[in-house]
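Supplementary Methods S3. Complex input for the fe (ii) ion-bound model.
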Amino acid sequence: MIDSHVHILPGVDDGARDEEQSVYMLEKAKADGITHWIVTPHYNHACSPHTYDELKSRFIKWAAIYGNSHAKDNLLFGVEVYVDEPFIKFLKHMDKLPTFENSNYMLIEFSRAWKVEQMLEAIHELKIRGVHPVIAHVEVYPDLLEKPENVKQLADEGCMIQVSASSFLDRHYYKFLRALIQLNAVDIVASDGHDVKNRPPILSDSYRAVTKHFSKNWANRLFVDAPRKLFYGEVYVRPHMVVTVTKRQIYTMGSSVIAGLALLFIGLGQLGFLPGGSNPDALNIAVLESTEAISDATDGGFDLTDESIAAGAKEEETTEQVTVSTQAPASTGLPISATTSVPSKLTYDEIVTIHITMLELLQSDYEANVARIYEDIQNARTFISDEAKRKAAIDGYIEEAGALEAQCDIEVYDVLYKFQNALEEFDYPVDVIEESRAEYHSIKEATKQKYLNEF
Ligand SMILES: [Fe+2]
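Predicted complex, serialized as structure tokens:
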């Protein structure tokens, strides 16, 4: 596999802290089956004050030392460009655009608050200068997450669409990703790895999830074929696909839950509670889903069978049908069914871990976005000399901050609502909900206060 978006260059942004951590990340990625990396530190971003040339020079030194012993010639330099209004304005003054080292591909991100119309305007400015934009982690933008057809618009404008690997393991993004597949509006999956713990530089779990829920062809397209075009600077043409996914594919929170439930079934099999006895391979079981996942599947869910996205080569059909046996083993007479006898109960700790992780992701996004807006205001003060225009721009950013806060509230309360439902479903105490809500408000206030004090 090829990872086309990773923050592994040490000490330049919010990715690898130092050389030791970057080597650790490389080793972890290699063990995961990744063979090539496009190294993409942040550029024109609040967390990275470096110029393109400085980043490139740091990359060359680092790759000369660690590339030889850890990755040979499988490292390519690129950057992840934060595209904002000042950047677009200065495009015409740039001698060398910050594309990937060997091509006109440019990995880009925007303010989370941007609407698709703003993105399309910026993309137009890039494309008329010969850039082939690759939009990073499209799932983080509310205007795209809520309207997948907006992503289709960007794809149709000639952008490559990238999604973070971890999102394929997070049910928060399930409907969105399914829609992108249906629209044929996703091209690449990358790790966007920043460290070994919270945002690890790995892909294999997600590759397996895509294979299971969609098909092996889709997995190879997203994780191998399209990233290879980027790595070697070759022309990419989005394939026409016929999507075929078997009925009742089930999506769960993440690989750890799947692994835990798979072990549960293997354990039951070994105890003779399931047909197939001690041979797990004989069990006709893939995943036991949560109640919510069942409703996802039955209300339209993953049933894309026979759906034609466009004329073209027919994809290999996934054969991993999700079924849970309802036969009673003759030896025990115990009935096993998906909703009654199989002990599908999640522990309190599992429920808390899943939801706190989601809240922490929202928190880090919120903090990063507030920091970016602050940076935008500083840029407006620096770059816009006309007083009226400067004031208008700053007012716009302040309005953006308000919209960001409102959006964050919606997302956090959605997670808290699901969190509480999950706890109540199993009669667990729900005190943690109130604590989480209070902590969210205190973090939000502290973040706002921090920037207000600086003005
Ligand atoms: Fe990134």
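The chain has three domains: 2-232, 240-344, 348-454. The pocket of fe (ii) ion is lined by residues 5, 7, 80, 136, 192 (CB under 6 Å).
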